[in-house]
Write a structure and sequence with these properties.
Layout lengths: L7 H11 L8 H11 L11 E2 L5 E5 L8 E8 L2 E9 L10 H9 L3 E2 L4 E2 L4 H7 L7 E11 L5 E18 H9 L6 H4 L2 H24 L7 E8 L2 E9 L2 H23 L4 E5 L6 H10 L10 H14 L4 H12 L3 E5 L26 H14 L8 H34 L6 E10 L2 E6 L5 E6 L9 E10 L4 E6 L1
Parallel strand pairs: 1-8, 2-8, 15-17
Antiparallel strand pairs: 3-4, 4-7, 5-6, 7-8, 9-10, 11-12, 13-14, 13-16, 14-15, 16-17
Amino acid sequence: MSQPSFDLRAAAHQEMLTEGFQPDFSPAVDQQVKALEERKGLPNADGIRDLRSLLWSSIDNDSSRDLDQAEVAERVNGGIRVLVAIADVDTDVPIDSPIDKHAAYETTSVYAGVKTFPMLPEELSTGLTSLNENADRLAVVVELVVGADGTISSPSVYRALVRNQAQLTYNGVGPWLEGTAAVPPKVAASSDLAAQLKLQDEAARILHDERCRMGALSLDRVEAEAVISDGEVQGINARKKNRASELIENFMVAANGVMARALQDAKVSSIRRVVKTPERWPRIVELAAQHGGKLPAEPDSAALNEFLQKRKAADPDHYADVSLAVVKLMGPGEYVLARSGEDSPGHFALAAHDYTHSTAPNRRFADTVTQRLIKSVLGKQPCPYSDSQLDVIAQNCTLKEDAARKVERVMGKRIAAVALRHRIGETFSAIVTGAGPKGVFVRALGPPVEGMLVQGQQGADVGDRLQVKLVGTDPRRGYIDFAKV
């Protein structure tokens, strides 16, 4: 007898409301969108550099339509010049306009598996403010030169007109760069584009090596991705990092560092993204010892990264398990006010002292705020926010990011419960991802889904590896129950 269907989209909408989001746009927002759509041509671009002739390309997830950035590179004396174009959201979304008020409240797009709840109306985030292929768009460009030794020089930030000439995907470009798959069709059609991507990859590898040398953590998480067809869940796939996603990650970290330092040099307060020193460092030390590693008693990102790299080389098949445990033990990041002239805590996982979020203004409000701050510096205008306003925004961004994670986690469990309800009784390899008053939680490794350990949980702690049996699923409550074998 088949189980009754469960309306995942309705559940996602309700979960958004439960976690304090407003997933539906107001009539005032709709009216502002309509006015923007009726506008003829681009807004005033006087005094803005015209870089449309450059061979810009974007790389993102297969399903992404909200394109926040595009990249281009060229070899120069001293290294490789990298340009990152960031979608200009601020021009179409003035402060205190209806769309801005909605974005300021939501602060983030929420990816609920079966549905995306965008921070901005899709007419903007996937249209007017998205760096879509073959469309002229205003952008904020971060420029830097990557030296052969990984140093960054000649940083600058300016406004420009750009044109994305190739919308590409991680799954298309990554395997090609790794030499495990054929060249993607758009790249095959253009030798210039192929050379351009190889040059970007070269710059990204140099940046990556330098970041690792400085102690940035080489984490390699496996994410669950729902397979949806005609609105129905068909299964769960594992999404892993590849050479293309690492390329973009390294460029974004570099661009965000340049942006943070530009605001600091201009003596402007800003919002920083920080990951403080891990509170559960002793457990990380213990976890390393279980795998033959030795970490110092005091938190040390460089020592931790050295251990992680050794584990990856020694046991690449199970490296994602160790990565996941370390991520859980480090705890989430947060947004904080960085007052002009004051020191900020930095980002432990990235080994970055100066780090802001600036490269995804279609998806994150903190990035939109950062864009407004840098544009006020470039235009020699007064700062658009007071320190107290930035502090309130930072706190709300942290709260809403936590809430978004809850929505995504619950919906991930519901989707997995629907996908796995025909596999009750099967045994899976798993890793403990949480242990506390609410219970012990584990993540099966194939497919990568989380659930509660309802039998055999005594003494289990984060990072432990177990064999578990699926004993029950409940899509309505998002429950997936495992028993230790």
